[in-house]
Amino acid sequence: MAVLLGGIDLFRGFMHTVILPYSATHIACLDLSGPTASDLLRLLGLFGISNFITGATLILTGLYARPIALALLGLIPAFYGLGLLAIHVAMNPYPPSTAQWGGRPFMVVNLSLYVLTFLAGLLALRQRKTKP
C-alpha cells in the first residue's frame, strides 16, 4: 500500500509542478489575475516538490523497509493534520479564501487510505505478537 500511495504522491507532484498553471486554475480554481499570481504558483509548485519527495520515500520504504513505511503511513497524515491546523490559525485574521480547492475530496480519500492502512498495519503487528 505504501508503494501505491507513493505513486499517488508522485502523480500529485506532477499535477502541482509540471502542469502547475492548469492545476491552479482548473482544480484549485485560484484567481491568478492579481499581483500575487506568481506567489500562488510558487507556493503550489513548492508543495508539489514535497509530493515528489514523499512519493519516492514511500515507494522506496515500501519496497525495502516495511516497518519504516508503516511509520510513514502514520506520520504523514499526522503532519498534514498539524499543518492544516497551523494554516487555519494563521489564516484566521484574513478574509476567507475564494478558491474552490478541487483536490480536497481526493485528499480526504488519500489521507483516509494512509490512516486506515496504518491502523490495519498496527493491528496486524499486534496480532502477530499475541500469537504463540
List the helices and strands and how they pair.
Blueprint: H1 2-17, H2 20-27, H3 37-64, H4 66-91, H5 104-130
Helix pairs in contact: 1-2, 1-3, 3-4, 4-5
Describe the structure.
The chain is mainly alpha-helical and 132 residues long. Helices cover 80% and strands 0% of the residues. The protein has helices at 2-17, 20-27, 37-64, 66-91, 104-130. Helix 1 (2-17) packs across helix 2. The two termini are 27 Å apart. The model has no long low-confidence stretch (mean pLDDT 94).
Comma- or semicolon-separated keywords:
mainly alpha, 132 residues, 0% strand, 5 helices
Give a brief description.
By secondary structure, the chain is an all-alpha fold.
Number of DSSP E strands: 0
Could you tell me the mean pLDDT? 94
Low-confidence stretches: none
Strand content: under 5%
The 3D shape can be described as: elongated
In which range does the helix fraction lie?
A: over 70%
Calculate the terminal CA-CA distance, rounded to whole Å.
27 Å
Number of helices: 5
Spell the H/E element sequence: HHHHH
The biggest beta sheet, please?
Answer: none
Structural class: mainly alpha
Instruction: Calculate Rg over CA atoms.
Output: 17 Å
